[in-house]
Amino acid sequence: MPNAYTRLVVPETPSSPLTKSSYLRLGSYSDEEETLVTGLTTTIGESPAAISKHESDNAGLLAFTNKDFQANIEGAALLKIGRGQTTEVTNGNSQHQVSKGTYEISAENGVSISAGANGTPADIILTASNRVKLINNGHKLETTVGNSEKQTMGDTKEFFQGTKFTCMRGAATTLAMANNVCMFFGEAFTFKISRECSFNLSDMNSITIGNKLDIVQGNDVKQVIGNSAKCVFGPDFKSADSDTKILRTSNFKLAPVDDLKVVGRDGKVCKMSVSVTEEELSQGKSSTEQYELVTRAAQIMSSTGNEEVIQKKSINFM
What we know:
Layout: E1 5-11, E2 21-27, E3 41-44, E4 52-55, E5 60-65, H1 278-283, H2 288-303, H3 308-317
Antiparallel strand pairs: 1-2, 2-5, 3-4
């Protein structure tokens, strides 16, 4: 009996239409139920490649009411759907609450969650009282069209195994009010086509164990307001087209072994030229100018930390 059916109708009034009643039908569809069926479609398919839209012929079980629909089940509720499911809430919210237990969603071909219809702004809020755990066994694509804000009240650990590419267009500001430790086990390459400015209002230490090469194409200006010291344990080589040095006070040079200079023309302009040898000091044949020269040399060497210099020079004069 393909057209057999059983109907149960409870109208609000004896003359009320079906849309103003509670209606239950088992069996075939009738044309007079056109205003009661949902008209929704769903997707069905035996495999992901064979998924298609499905429009119901409205036969089977039809339940309609213009009032509320309630089902109170004290035991377990089991629902098995063979060919797709579509649920639509036309006006109102949809809530699913599990008072005691776990809410699980499992889909073989994927899970899609979207908020906002036809471009209407809408939010997606995920709240966990303990932790959020995300495991991705494939590729991950994340796109944010707007502002992004992240706050972490605790420790953060990140581990990358592979290649990382970061492109920044705009301005980047980093404020660190703590210790910052960076370790590179490999090669680090930085290429900048821009102007760089750095301000350090505290101590700065740099240790390089290996070779260091600096290439500057342009001007290299260094200004030190204070003391500057350089110590080289090995040969120190310097090559320049020209060298100009301007000192406000004194220039002291100490070469315990040899001082060799090969020049084309050696010119010097000075108000007074004074030189002294250790033999003249040991014999006590120094002049007043030579005595002042040795005393000044002793003062400079003493300021560098050699406390025996002044005593040694005083013995020579005595």
